[in-house]
Design goal:
Layout lengths: L4 E4 L6 H6 L6 E5 H6 L1 H8 L9 E5 L2 H4 L5 H11 L3 E3 L7 H18 L4 E4 L6 H14 L4 E5 L1 H6 L3 H8 L4 E5 L5 H10 L4 E4 L1 H7 L27 H13 L9
Parallel strand pairs: 1-8, 2-3, 3-4, 4-5, 5-6, 6-7, 7-8
Helix pairs in contact: 11-12
Length: 257
């Protein structure tokens, strides 16, 4: 069984502090639009890391934060800045037809322009059946290496577990995109299935309110504050929450706090 990683999403200018405090890890998901906005920060933190260690660096397409995924050319520009190893292909949330169109185009574009990059498909669908068919079609027709299972599916279907199990049948790596409003299900899926990792800004947003993350908390009320992009340092409570999540996932001793 794979031991899953936790990738904390922190304010873009706080990544140097995340590194300096020893919490960066070797498995990260970062947002492409932030890489474009703060290129020197991400180049300093991530590009130089590849000179000495092997790591997984996933570049997200930004659709959750901006409403529209960045175009392949912009994603490739961001990937080169930080030397990402995986790119999340453009998708359209809960619209399988529109999502397939942009994902298929981007898959072929990246295969041609930078065949060394690993690609992540985010399946879409309004029902479990539609999502399952999307996964099967992607396996049969697209060039890619990962499935990214989005957080909205937990609310829509009650859990991500069945979708993850279905995706794993097709011999692709699986990443869970974000914490849902059911943290217990998120941790259970990540720990009991062969998931490579999960990312979230939620523990850090809680930390900036000096609140501990709690496994039984279902109401994800903590949001990134208006000054999120201006933070350059993490609070100790942010780091405590990162350690706590990693302990839940088995990356650290269970008394980590």
């Amino acid at each position: 069984m794979i031991k899953p990683h936790f990738s904390p999403i922190v304010p873009p200018q706080a990544y140097p502090d995340l590194r300096d405090r020893g919490h960066l890890g070797l498995y990260n998901l970062i947002l492409a639009q932030e890489v474009i906005q703060f290129p020197s920060t991400f180049e300093d933190v991530f590009q130089k890391q590849f000179d000495s260690v092997a790591r997984t660096l996933i570049l997200d397409n930004g659709v959750v934060e901006t409403g529209t995924a960045l175009e392949p050319k912009v994603l490739l520009e961001a990937a080169k800045i930080c030397r990402a190893s995986v790119v999340v292909l453009p998708d359209v949330i809960q619209d399988p037809e529109a999502s397939w169109e942009v994902t298929e185009y981007a898959s072929e574009w990246f295969k041609r322009e930078d065949p060394g990059l690993e690609l992540m498909v985010v399946p879409q669908g309004k029902t479990l059946g539609e999502v399952g068919l999307y996964i099967k079609r992607a396996y049969e027709e697209l060039h890619f290496h990962w499935f990214g299972i989005p957080r909205w599916m937990t609310k829509a279907f009650g859990t991500r577990s069945e979708i993850i199990k279905h995706a794993l049948r097709y011999n692709r790596k699986v990443h869970m995109l974000g914490f849902s409003d059911n943290l217990l299900d998120d941790i259970a899926c990540a720990r009991t299935l062969d998931v490579r990792g999960i990312d979230s800004a939620y523990p850090i947003a809680l930390g900036y309110q000096t609140l501990p993350i709690m496994i039984g908390r279902r109401n994800m009320t903590a949001q990134r504050d208006k000054g999120w992009d201006q933070h350059t340092l993490l609070y100790d409570s942010c780091c405590a929450n990162i350690r706590r999540v990693r302990a839940w996932l088995g990356q650290l001793p269970h008394d980590a706090s």
